[in-house]
Write a structure and sequence with these properties.
With about 400 residues, the protein is of the alpha/beta class. About 35% of the residues lie in helices and about 15% in strands. It has eleven helices and 16 strands. Strand 1 and strand 2 form a beta hairpin. Helix 2 crosses helix 8. The longest helix is centred in the first third of the chain and has 21 residues.
Length: about 400
């Protein structure tokens, strides 16, 4: 048994690593790999491979009957488990999509009609939202881009930008370039509701690694996330948590949103209740099978979100210690305070892209966003792997 980061508790790291036998296998040339990609593409546990086979077998056995017999019940169970890990009630409404962009755009098309829509966001949002909002601005939507710097006063600037007449707030729980946990999120969401705006929180870089205290925001917030990063579910499985009293009518709608709907009686399009009103259309269920397997994997090892958070903080703290010891502390852009730091460490480098390529040649995998190198540990890594990987990073950053 090796200690994890939660005081007074431990988990069997060797057993956990054994559950990733394929992902943690050496490269084809026999060289060991160090996967410091826990913030972007966590390794898939072996059960994900078994889940893909089960998806095929169910389709072969049940043909079209797979939907009612397996897929829809699995969708419900996965949704409840995800809501719980997000910090919501298991009975809340949830909608699934292949990516968060699909779900967010569906929500945007449901915003109440006004002479001119006004959306408040930050300059630190992920590319898909940033690009979509920039395109909407070209079509006349007023988009207020709030600077994320200085980060200590970001909440104040967002609160000031949320004025009456705002249609929507779109903000991340964690900034994807710096791993900064956005402070006072419940207060920001409450202000959005107060001025009549639809509040949307992108929780992708928080899900399964940073617990969110929703507080008074919980009844009102739309929260989106997905399985590609810390959840180890892979691509194609994203979701939108929907407030229970939601009556919005997305213009971008699919036929799955018609299941369970009641006729409007006046010829208008009707919507199913709850999260189903944001449903799309026929999807590839293999991602859902992987999601169910990954959720069972976390439960089997007792890796709750608080425990994963504790492990992550210990690991990112170790990375910071190495960077400080190497004299690179001034280049770190991630918060030092544990309560403000999410699941990775970001280091500024003018040659970040080149550093990523040189590290890949050394079998150390990281990624970069513009001039920021992102280093993401994961619970299956040993301290020795982290130390070796960061030593290689330091070496390349000094070149």
């Amino acid at each position: 048994m090796r200690p994890d980061a939660e005081k007074g508790s431990s988990f069997d790291l060797d057993a956990l690593r054994a559950a990733y036998s394929r992902s943690l296998a050496p490269a084809p040339d026999g060289a060991p790999r160090i996967l410091l990609t826990g913030h972007s593409h966590q390794a898939w546990p072996d059960v994900a491979r078994d889940a893909l086979a089960a998806c095929f077998d169910d389709a072969a056995r049940l043909v079209d009957g797979k939907w009612d017999a397996v897929v829809l019940p699995k969708l419900s169970a996965v949704g409840e488990a995800i809501l719980e890990r997000m910090g919501f009630d298991r009975g809340d409404a949830i909608a699934f999509g292949q990516n968060t962009h699909e779900l967010v755009f569906r929500l945007i098309t449901a915003l109440p009609r006004r002479e001119r829509q006004r959306i408040v966001t930050t300059q630190g949002e992920f590319h898909s939202l940033r690009r979509q909002l920039a395109r909407l601005a070209e079509e006349g939507v007023e988009v207020v881009w709030v600077s994320v710097e200085p980060r200590a006063t970001l909440a104040d600037r967002l609160l000031a930008a949320l004025t009456p007449g705002t249609s929507m707030l779109a903000v991340s729980a964690v900034l994807f370039e710096s791993a900064t946990v956005v402070p006072r999120l419940d207060e920001i969401v409450a202000r959005a509701v107060e001025v009549g705006a639809v509040p949307l929180v992108d929780a992708y870089h928080a899900f399964n690694v940073v617990p969110i205290a929703w507080g008074r925001a919980a009844p009102h917030v739309f929260a989106t996330a997905g399985g590609y990063k810390y959840a180890a579910m892979g691509e194609g499985i994203c979701w939108l948590r929907v407030p229970r009293d939601c009556a919005l009518r997305p213009v971008f709608t699919g036929w799955f949103a018609d299941f369970g709907s009641l006729s409007s009686g006046d010829g208008t399009v009707a919507y199913a209740p709850g999260g189903a009103r944001f449903a799309g259309a026929t999807f590839d269920p293999s991602a859902l099978y992987r999601a169910a397997a990954a959720l069972e994997h976390w439960e089997r090892f007792g890796l709750t979100v608080p425990r994963l958070r504790a492990i992550s903080l210990r690991q990112t703290g170790r990375i910071l210690d190495h960077l400080d010891a190497a004299g690179l502390g001034d280049d770190v852009v991630s918060p030092r305070e544990p309560e403000r730091r999410a699941g990775f460490v970001a280091v500024r480098s003018s040659t970040a892209g080149d550093v990523v390529e040189r590290l890949r040649a050394r079998r150390v995998l990281v990624d970069a966003r513009r001039d920021v190198l992102r280093v993401g540990p994961a619970p299956y890594l040993t301290d020795a792997e982290i130390d070796q990987g960061v030593a290689a990073i330091v070496d390349e950053l000094r070149r």
